[in-house]
C-alpha cells in the first residue's frame, strides 16, 4: 500500500482542528455542568451531551493518532506497520453518529464545525459516513437513547 504523505498531512491537520474544537466544547460543558452532571440520562440531557462530546473528542484523538502513526511508519520505511495503522484508521467510525445523536439540540457551533470537517475526510478513509453525519446535523432533537414507553 502506498501512503501519500501530503494527503496524510491534510487528514492530520483536519483531525487536529476537529480535536481542538471538540476539546474546547468539552471544557465548556464541564465548566457549565461539572465533569459528571447530575440528572437523568435521557437523550439530550446534560449527562448525555457531555458523554457524546467526550466520545467525539476521544474518537478524533484516536483517529489523529492512527494518521500520525501511518505517516511516521511510512516515512521510516516501515510499510507493514504503516499498512496496519492505515487499516485501523479506516475502521468505520460508528461512534460519530451514536455520540452526536445523544447530544442536546441545537448542537454547538464547535461541534457542528468539527462534524463538518470530519465529514470531508469521508473519501480519504473510505468511510461512507457523509450521509450519517448529514442526518445528525439535520436532526431537530437528540435521538439516542430512545425514549421508553
Q: Report Rg.
A: 16 Å
The rough form would be described as: elongated
Along the chain, the helix and strand elements come as HHHHHHH
Total number of domains: 1
Sheet bearing the most strands, described? none
Low-pLDDT runs: none
Give the number of DSSP strands: 0
Overall pLDDT, averaged? 89
Q: Quote the beta fraction.
A: under 5%
Helix amount, in percent? 55-70%
Structural class: mainly alpha
- The DSSP helix count reads 7
Tell me the span between the first and last alpha carbons.
Answer: 51 Å
Can you offer a commentary on this structure?
The protein is mostly helical. The protein has one domain. It is 67% helix and 0% strand. Helix 1 runs antiparallel to helix 2 and helix 2 packs antiparallel against helix 3. The longest helix has 30 residues. The mean pLDDT is 89.
What is the strand and helix layout of this fold?
Blueprint: H1 5-33, H2 46-75, H3 79-89, H4 95-100, H5 109-119, H6 122-125, H7 130-138
Helix pairs in contact: 1-2, 1-5, 2-3, 5-7
Which structural traits does this protein have?
mainly alpha; 0% strand
Gist of the model:
The protein contains 7 helices and no strands.
Amino acid at each position: 500500500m502506498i501512503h501519500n504523505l501530503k494527503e496524510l498531512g491534510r487528514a492530520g491537520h483536519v483531525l487536529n482542528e476537529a480535536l481542538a474544537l471538540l476539546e474546547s466544547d468539552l471544557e465548556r460543558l464541564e465548566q457549565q455542568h461539572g465533569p459528571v452532571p447530575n440528572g437523568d440520562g435521557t437523550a439530550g440531557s446534560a449527562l448525555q451531551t457531555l458523554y457524546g462530546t467526550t466520545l467525539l473528542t476521544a474518537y478524533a484523538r484516536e483517529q489523529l493518532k492512527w494518521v500520525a502513526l501511518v505517516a511516521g511508519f511510512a516515512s521510516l520505511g516501515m510499510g507493514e506497520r504503516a499498512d496496519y495503522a492505515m487499516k485501523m484508521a479506516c475502521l468505520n467510525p460508528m461512534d460519530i453518529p451514536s455520540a452526536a445523536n445523544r447530544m442536546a439540540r441545537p448542537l454547538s457551533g464547535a461541534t457542528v464545525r468539527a462534524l463538518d470537517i470530519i465529514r470531508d475526510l469521508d473519501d480519504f478513509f473510505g468511510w461512507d459516513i457523509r450521509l450519517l453525519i448529514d442526518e445528525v446535523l439535520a436532526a431537530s432533537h437528540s435521538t439516542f437513547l430512545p425514549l421508553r414507553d
